[in-house]
Amino acid sequence: MEVRQIRADEGMALKGVRLRALRLAPEAYHTTLDEASEHPDEVWHDRATRAADGAYEAMFVVDRGQGVLGGMVYVNALPEPPHDAFISSMWLDDDLRGGGMADALMQSAESWARALGAPQVELWASYANDRARRFYARHGYVLGGVEEAWDRGGGSSLFVKDLASEIRAGD
What are the beta bridge partners of residue 121? Predict the structure, then answer.
């Protein structure tokens, strides 16, 4: 198994892992399974193509082999400087958790943002997803002081990581 950037031809594999995430952990995501299931296949192909080749977006995946993805994380950045970056749609299949794959996904997304010169990375974590909130804190994310309530109940908190201070500390 490896963590790598998604390929443009993996739209259906992306659909599979995203729908699995929404089915198994609906409380963790703003998008619902019903909403995502309504997307035509072209939407999934377009997302994979943009995330494979886009200048300001990328998706990193866990390749389980035979066309199956076991995890994902999406990262994008503003096209205008300072290129603040945003992480979303993080998922890892249960049987892959605890073995370093989630860390590898996060490191891939953050490395991509650093290479673009992003001074910070933001992400949202569901109130109900304590495991993810602990994971993000372990990776240096702090609460950003913004909360978002969802129409269907629940909500999420903004987390922020300052990459600029990491870069300055490394100089």
Answer: 85, 161
Give the tens place of pLDDT for each residue, 26-66: 888 889 999 999 999 999 999 999 999 989 999 999 999 99
**What's this model's pTM, rounded to 2 decimal places?**
0.91
Residue with tokens 């963590």: 3
Task: Please name the CATH architecture into which domain 2-170 falls.
Answer: 3-Layer(aba) Sandwich (3.40)
Rounded Cα distance between 131 and 19, Å, is 20
Q: Give the neighbor-by-neighbor strand order of the sheet with 120-126.
A: 2-5, 57-65, 68-77, 85-92, 120-126, 155-162, 142-149
Greatest Cα-to-Cα distance within the chain, rounded to the nearest angstrom: 48
What DSSP state is assigned to residue 95?
G
